[in-house]
Write a structure and sequence with these properties.
- The complex is a heterodimer of chains A (about 80) and B (about 260).
- Chain A has a single domain (about 5-80), classed as Orthogonal Bundle (Non-ribosomal Peptide Synthetase Peptidyl Carrier Protein, Chain A).
- Helix content of chain A is about 55%, strand content about 0%.
- Chain A has helices at about 5-20, 40-55, 60-65, 70, 75-80.
- In chain A, α1 runs antiparallel to α2.
- Chain A is globular.
- The model of chain A has no long low-confidence stretch (mean pLDDT about 90).
- Chain B is of the alpha/beta class and about 260 residues long.
- Chain B has one domain: Rossmann fold.
- Chain B is built from nine helices and seven strands.
- Chain B has helices at about 15-30, 40-55, 70-80, 105-135, 155-175, 195-200, 215-225, 240-255, 260-265, and strands at about 10, 30-35, 55-60, 85-90, 135-140, 180-185, 235-240.
- Chain B has a seven-stranded parallel sheet with strand order 3-2-1-4-5-6-7, sandwiched between helices.
- In chain B, α4 (about 105-135) links the parallel β4 and β5 (about 135-140).
- Mean pLDDT of chain B is about 90; it is low at about 1-5 and about 260-265.
- Classes of the chains: A mainly alpha (about 80), B alpha/beta (about 260).
- The interface of A and B includes residues 43 and 50 of A.
Chain lengths: ~80, ~260
């Protein structure tokens, strides 16, 4: 795993904790579902998507990602599979 | 955040009447004001000049806030300028009264679009910014017509009633992200928009005067502040007591009694 990828992962985890401060001391993995495991709701996901776009750039299309939620079940790792 | 200063406010329908009064007040309180108008450029310019002369900071935007593209452009512009947007005053509105049987579909749709859809479009555009900040205030200008409509006001009253329902529902949706959504329901306020109505109403009762736009500015400033943090999803009536006095007057009339007579007995 490249440093760049590790860095991106860590930034993503930080953003998730920004949105959901109760996850501050909670371990997060790429296999976690934002909804089922981490407890984010639709408003949280909207907030997260906005933060992701700001930090990682416009490669992340939140509408497209949300539209495919049946495939990726909001797994944390699925965000990094987008063009971030 | 503890002070109003340097917060950014957007006021729709800001070129005249209640909107202009709110712009003046928020600017006087230290907010950066973005005054939005649809067509009254000269009036908007005049309000902006007054604010600037008093040391306030104001920017003008021409936009039809019932048009999605205009709203997107407006909010993008404010966000790119400041990286923030703290207060939204959904004040833009029109009156186009007509009895239902004589009202065209176009009339109905225009009133709903300007008075209700615009609030949806503006709120939808600013909510993501406010969520990001963890702080925001959305204030919708409703009307006492929701509770005491006159004949011919079906479209207007329906649009404002919808706006109050929208206020409560949006409050439920976004409240936990630090956003407060409330409405103000003015009574009879003398503005350009109500000029015809005030002329029709005849002589004034000195005990229930028509309000002035400035009578609404204080409550708007309060609801825009930290002090209103525990007020959510409410409609605040600001009508000089017309609503309660009307109920009393109706009861008195129904009982065939005079107020003075009641007091002296």
């Amino acid at each position: 795993m490249s440093i760049d990828t590790v860095d991106k992962q860590q930034k993503l985890f930080d953003l998730i904790r920004d949105v959901k401060p109760s996850l501050k001391d909670h371990p997060i993995s790429l296999e976690d579902s934002l909804v089922e495991n981490l407890g984010l709701d639709s408003l949280d996901i909207m907030q997260l998507a906005r933060k992701i776009r700001r930090v990682f750039g416009n490669g992340f299309d939140p509408q497209q990602w949300v539209a495919k939620n049946r495939e990726h079940r909001y797994l944390v790792g699925s965000i990094l599979e987008q063009n971030v | 955040m503890t002070a109003l200063s340097q917060r950014v406010a957007v006021v729709t329908g800001g070129s005249r009447g209640i909107g202009a009064a709110i712009c003046r007040r928020l600017a006087a309180d230290g907010l950066i004001v973005h005054l939005v108008y649809r067509s009254a450029h000269e009036m908007a310019r005049q309000v902006a000049d007054e604010i600037q002369a008093s040391g306030g900071l104001v920017f003008l935007h021409q936009a039809d806030v019932s048009v999605e593209a205009d709203v997107r452009k407006l909010v993008d512009s404010v966000e790119s300028q400041h990286g923030a947007l703290h207060v939204l005053i959904n004040n833009a509105g029109i009156i186009d009264d007509q009895l239902v049987e004589m009202m065209s579909l176009a009339q109905w749709e225009r009133v709903i679009a300007v008075n209700l859809t615009s609030a949806f479009l503006m709120s939808r555009a600013v909510v993501p910014i406010m969520i990001d900040q963890g702080w925001g205030r959305i204030i919708n200008l409703s009307s006492n017509s929701v509770r005491i409509p006159s004949a011919g006001q079906c479209a207007y009253a329906a649009s404002k009633g919808g706006l109050e329902a929208f206020t409560r529902c949006l409050a439920v949706e976004v409240g936990r992200k630090g956003i407060r959504v409330n409405a103000i329901a003015p009574g009879a306020v003398k503005t350009d928009m109500t000029a015809t109505l005030s002329a029709q109403s005849g002589a004034e009762d000195p005990n229930s005067r028509w309000g002035q736009p400035s009578d609404l500015a204080g409550i708007a400033a309060f609801l825009s502040s930290d002090d209103a943090d525990y007020i959510q999803g409410q409609t605040i009536t600001v009508d000089g007591g017309r609503l309660v006095m009307r109920q009393r007057a109706s009861k008195r009339k129904a009982e065939g009694k005079d107020y003075v007579e009641q007091r002296t007995k």
